């Protein structure tokens, strides 16, 4: 069995990133190591993102893609809360969904199974 367990992301300020991933995406703090500028953020399926501060991400080299229950409802809720988006719900090269950027510029993509089936496909 092969299961992706965690991902480490270099960030400028782990506290800023920790707070963003918690408030915007609802990830929980699994643990923190302040002496190493690190926070471990876990989703409900036990996947953990280690936010490692002090090493600025000059050019983010990956995109984080999260499946949600309803991408259009999530977009409406986050937009109403003042969260900025790169783009709202639309068809893009990877399918259908929204994109926002975390505090270090990492692309964060949100999608759901229903709209991906109905509206997805490459553009």
Defining traits:
4-stranded mixed sheet; 2,3-Dihydroxybiphenyl 1,2-Dioxygenase, domain 1; 123 residues; single chain; Signal recognition particle alu RNA binding heterodimer, srp9/1
Structure, explained:
The chain is α/β, with parallel strands linked by helices and 123 residues long. The chain has two domains: 6-58, 2,3-Dihydroxybiphenyl 1,2-Dioxygenase, domain 1 (Roll), CATH 3.10.180; 59-123, Signal recognition particle alu RNA binding heterodimer, srp9/1 (2-Layer Sandwich). It is built from three helices and eight strands; from the N terminus they run E-H-E-E-E-E-H-E-E-E-H. The protein has helices at residues 14-25, 71-80, 113-119, and strands at residues 6-11, 28-33, 38-42, 48-53, 64-67, 87-92, 95-101, 107-111. Strand 3 (38-42) and strand 4 (48-53) form a beta hairpin.
Give the averaged pLDDT, no decimals: 92
How many DSSP-defined strands?
8
What is the domain total for the residues?
Answer: 2
Main sheet specs: 4 strands, mixed
CATH topology of the largest domain: Signal recognition particle alu RNA binding heterodimer, srp9/1
**What helical percentage do the residues reach?**
10-25%
With helices defined by DSSP (H or I, 4 residues minimum), what is the helix count? 3
How do the strands of the widest beta sheet line up side by side? 1-4-3-2
The CATH class name of the largest domain reads Alpha Beta
pLDDT below 50 for ≥5 consecutive residues: which ranges? none
Gyration radius over CA: 15 Å
Quickly give the structural class. Answer: alpha/beta
Overall shape: it is: globular
User: Helix-strand pattern, N to C?
Assistant: EHEEEEHEEEH
**Which range does the strand content fall in?**
35-45%
Q: Supply the CATH architecture of the largest domain.
A: 2-Layer Sandwich
- The termini sit apart by 34 Å
